[in-house]
Amino acid sequence: MRTTVGIIGAGPAGLLLARLLHNAGIDSVVLESRDRAYVEQRQRAGILEQGTVDVLRAAGAGARMDREGLPHDGIELRFDRRRHRVDFPALTGGRAVMVYAQTEVCKDLIALQLKEGGPLLFEAEALAVEDAGTDSPRVRYRHEGRESVLECDYVVGCDGFWGVARKAVPEHLSRVFERTYPFGWLGVLADVPPSHDELVYARHDRGFALLSMRSPSVSRLYLQVPEGTDAADWGDEEIWDELERRFETGDDWRLERGPITQKSVTPMRSYVHEPMRHGRLFLAGDAAHIVPPTGAKGLNLAVGDVVTFARALVHLGETGSAERLDAYSETCLRRVWQAERFSYDMTTMLHRAPGATPFDDRIQLARLDRIATSRAAGTDLAEGYTGFPLD
Ligand code: FAD
Ligand code: DHB
């Protein structure tokens, strides 16, 4: 098979890229190792930045998001039994976010791709990217028990952290920047209306907790747990008891309980691979970088990368200039490092590290108090949360 852009991975990055290229009249083929049901059910992110919402709408993929998504104008920070609301539009000149799950973004993009776009092959596992440094890179893959080759003008590795694309960048040209955190998130889905109409990020001496949602009747909740925790070690009532403790306030706010339908543990890591391009291979999304989930940047960064790539390729077609394509890595990395910094700041401000001292606790509380009392500090959080603009 031959195509202009070979896309590895049908997560949000690969699916959106295929849609953007289709809209620009550029053909692509998407290879996805898992089956459709798996990709559509995998529980992950839930918050879309303003820029992501705008991109999905402009790509003709925003209709259901606009009907069913929940626009949010702020978040609540909870610490020391206090509650502080961060008002996004007031602090950013009108920016906000949308609660619309990654599962739903993927379902919408898959339906569009199958109806209008180029080939999207499920259960097609990329085995290797070859000849990335030449004008005709190839993806070797296995589909329906047979090995085949996809010949491309460009390959975009959207195959997540565990994919194969990154391995095609020679080691001596790669630099990796990494940090792991000695804790993870136990995430649960529960059939109960959210106990607050906006997200609540809580810092507590027992650890971090987050109240989020998937719809007006489904809550999504997270608890900081020690690294290596098995979700099965936590009973449902134990989870609710712990959430209740960490969300405690000085007023009469209450956490509603309901049946827990899913639970899993996510490890926390910061990771950046530089450069994000080698020859005609481009890395996008989790294939190139990981952020800890606090602040919900992962999916939004993936969107920024593929928009940057699609615009650069269109620019090449329209002007003959490869300048933007050549600047892909640098352009993306500026935004990536801002998101890395933001996610790191949110994570270290809100989680209690093992061995944290009373001094560390006081510093965290001082950082939160600063956000609650200084417009400049509140604006910094609101700008980061609603998203860094694309160049
Ligand atoms: P992915 O969504 O990982 O998609 C990559 C795709 O490539 C997958 O479908 C995979 O099956 C496919 N693939 C892999 N290898 C191959 C291969 N060899 N051949 C073909 N296909 C391949 N972010 C948040 O903001 N909030 C959260 O709460 C949150 N929770 C998360 C929980 C988990 C367990 C994980 C792993 C991530 C979470 N994230 C969260 C991050 C966010 O979901 C990711 O940043 C986002 O999915 C990135 O999209 P992507 O398309 O780059 O990669
Ligand atoms: C969700 C995940 C996040 O990482 C976050 O900061 C906010 C919300 C969520 O899954 O709903």
From TrEMBL:
InterPro entries: FAD-bd (IPR002938), FAD/NAD-bd_sf (IPR036188), RIFMO-like (IPR050641). It holds the Pfam family FAD_binding_3. The keyword Secreted does not apply. It comes from Streptomyces minutiscleroticus. Keywords: FAD, Flavoprotein. Residues 2-343 form the FAD-binding domain. It comes from the Bacteria. The keyword Flavoprotein applies. PANTHER family: P-HYDROXYBENZOATE HYDROXYLASE, TRK SYSTEM POTASSIUM UPTAKE PROTEIN. This is 4-hydroxybenzoate 3-monooxygenase. GO terms for molecular function: FAD binding; oxidoreductase activity, acting on paired donors, with incorporation or reduction of molecular oxygen, NAD(P)H as one donor, and incorporation of one atom of oxygen.
